[in-house]
From TrEMBL:
Residues 26-65 bind DNA. Homodimer. Gene3D superfamilies: NAD(P)-binding Rossmann-like Domain, Winged helix-like DNA-binding domain superfamily/Winged helix DNA-binding domain. Keywords: Cytoplasm, DNA-binding, NAD, Repressor, Transcription, Transcription regulation. This is Redox-sensing transcriptional repressor Rex. Residues 217-226 have a biased composition (Basic and acidic residues). Residues 89-190 form the CoA-binding domain. It holds the Pfam family Put_DNA-bind_N. NAD(+) binds at G100, I101, G102, N103, L104, G105. Belongs to the transcriptional regulatory Rex family.
Length: 236
C-alpha cells in the first residue's frame, strides 16, 4: 500500500506548470459545489466564472490533464472531480502534523476541511509543556520532543508550522530531518529548506498590507479633482 511519504502526485512528472497546479484546487472547489448540487455537466465558461479565471485559461489548464470536454455538452463534473483529485494526490490519505498550538494552531486543528479534502491530522505538537495532554479538536497536544517518532510512526510527509517566527526555522529543520518533504508555513518568516522540500507560505499580514495598498489607491482616485486628472495632494 502506498504511504503518504512514498507516493507523490503526478503533476510534476507530467509537466503540468506550477501556475496550473495552483489553479487546480480552485477548479476542484467549484466542481465539488456543483457535484453536491447533482449538476452533471458544466461548460468551460460557467466553471471558469465559478473558479474566478477566464475560460481560455481553464481550457488550457485542462488540456494538461488530457480533458477537453464535449462541444455543446461541456465537462462531466464527476469525472473532473476524480481527475483533478487524482492529479492533486487527494485520492489517498495524507497524514499531517501541526506544530504550534496557540490560537492559530488550535483554529487550524479545528478546521473541518482537512478530512473532507484528503488530509488527516495525525498529531498536534507544541513546545509548551503546560499544553501537553490538553485536547484540541479531539486530539491530545503532544510535546515537540515527540516530533521525530510521530513523523516516523505515521509516515508524515506534510507539516504545518503555526509557531512564532523565532521558532519556525528550528521546527522546519527538525521536520525535514525527520523526513517531512512539504511544509505549510503560517509563521511570519522566510524558511530555508534543502532541495526537494516544498514550502508554501501563508502570511496574513502581507495579504492585509496588499489590501491596504488597494484601499489607499481607491481612496486616492476618489479624491481626484473634477477634471479627473490631478489627484489631491497626499501627506508624505
Amino acid at each position: 500500500m502506498a504511504t503518504g511519504r512514498s507516493h507523490r502526485p503526478a503533476t510534476r512528472s507530467r509537466g503540468i506548470p506550477e501556475a496550473t497546479v495552483a489553479r487546480l484546487p480552485l477548479y476542484l472547489r467549484a466542481l465539488t459545489a456543483l457535484s453536491e448540487r447533482s449538476v452533471p455537466t458544466v461548460s468551460s465558461e460557467e466553471l471558469a466564472a465559478a473558479a474566478g479565471v477566464n475560460s481560455a485559461k481553464l481550457r488550457k489548464d485542462f488540456s494538461y490533464l488530457g480533458s477537453y470536454g464535449t462541444r455543446g455538452v461541456g465537462y462531466d463534473v464527476e469525472y473532473l472531480v476524480y481527475q483533478i483529485s487524482r492529479e492533486l494526490g487527494l485520492t489517498q490519505d495524507w497524514p499531517v502534523v501541526i506544530v504550534g498550538i496557540g490560537n492559530l494552531g488550535a483554529a487550524l486543528a479545528n478546521y473541518g476541511g482537512f478530512a473532507s479534502r484528503g488530509f488527516r491530522v495525525a498529531a498536534l505538537l507544541d513546545a509548551d509543556t503546560a499544553l501537553a495532554g490538553r485536547l484540541v479538536a479531539g486530539l491530545p497536544v503532544r510535546h515537540i520532543d515527540e516530533l521525530e517518532a510521530i513523523v516516523d510512526d505515521n509516515q508524515v510527509s506534510i507539516g504545518v508550522i503555526a509557531t512564532p517566527a523565532g521558532a519556525a526555522q528550528e521546527v522546519t529543520d527538525r521536520l525535514v530531518a525527520a523526513g517531512v518533504t512539504s511544509i505549510l508555513n503560517f509563521a511570519p518568516t522566510v524558511l530555508s529548506v534543502p532541495d526537494g522540500v516544498d514550502v508554501r507560505k501563508v502570511d496574513l499580514s502581507i495579504e492585509l498590507q496588499i489590501l491596504a495598498f488597494h484601499e489607499q489607491r481607491k481612496a486616492g482616485e476618489g479624491r481626484q479633482d473634477p477634471d479627473g486628472d490631478v489627484p489631491a495632494v497626499m501627506p508624505a
